[in-house]
Amino acid sequence: MLRAQGHACLMLNAPVPPEPLMGVWSLQTPPAVSMANRGPSYGLSREVQQKIDRQYDPELEQILVRWILAQCGGDVAQPAPGRDGFQQWLKDGTVLCRLINSLHPRGQGPVAKIQASAMAFKQMEQISQFLQAAERYGIAATDIFQTVDLWEGKNMACVQRTLMNLGSLAVAKGDGLFVGDPNWFPKKSQENRRVFSEDKLKEGQSVIGLQMGTNRGASQAGMTGYGMPRQIL
């Protein structure tokens, strides 16, 4: 009995490990979560994403890769084929910034500092710099993709359209900075401004457009008077 009591005393006197404090996990740095590795979509969201993915053009991808490699120079590595390879190639923004700089005279590129980085905010910052420079270059705001379209790979078809419009505009400028085959891209329509004299403008104001109708050739010949029976010959 005494031995059991002594054993119980030893157990009571043994050091007790401290209990974990409440909220201790909140003090630890959470694991990094990549926005590109988002979970799968379901239901309507999945159907919309599949519809967007089907708009991606593999043939246009090959044309864009050939142009970017020629425009940026030989020190740019070639991407892996396919949509995912194309997205990873452009994701950090360095290739895009080099592309837009190559469309300007040497030393006048809109992106002053281009640096490869594994940090997400730095990659998205360089993509944003490219988008701003592309809009200043002449691309319409409605033809420019969003940063998340490329960085998260949500809409690579829109990325393709932006780059295609950029190539078409570079060809249309004709400033000698475009490198590659101009036939790779559709030709942009050129402005054809007309200048008319004041007399010509006043003359046009007195003309009735055919969309409003015309009274030429109108006649009452052959018409039967009101209230009279129709003459059938």
Task: Report the strand count.
Answer: 0
What is the average per-residue confidence, as pLDDT, rounded to a whole number? 79
C-alpha end-to-end distance: 141 Å
Count up the helices.
10
The share of residues in helices is 40-55%
Unreliable runs, pLDDT <50, ≥5 residues?
Answer: 1-12, 20-36
Judged by helices, strands and strand pairing, the structural class is mainly alpha
Which keywords apply here?
233 residues; mainly alpha
Architecture overview:
Residues 1-12 and 20-36 have low confidence and may be disordered. The chain starts with a helix and ends in a 28-residue tail after the last helix. It is elongated, with a radius of gyration of 35 Å. The protein is built from 10 helices and no strands. It has helices at residues 2-13, 24-27, 43-54, 58-72, 83-90, 94-102, 120-137, 147-151, 156-173, 198-205. 47% of the residues lie in helices and 0% in strands. It is an all-alpha fold and 233 residues long. Helix 4 crosses helix 9 and helix 6 packs parallel to helix 7 (120-137).
Sequence-ordered SSE layout with sheet pairings:
Layout: H1 2-13, H2 24-27, H3 43-54, H4 58-72, H5 83-90, H6 94-102, H7 120-137, H8 147-151, H9 156-173, H10 198-205
Give a quick precis of the structure.
This protein has helices at residues 2-13, 24-27, 43-54, 58-72, 83-90, 94-102, 120-137, 147-151, 156-173, 198-205. With 233 residues, it is an all-alpha fold.
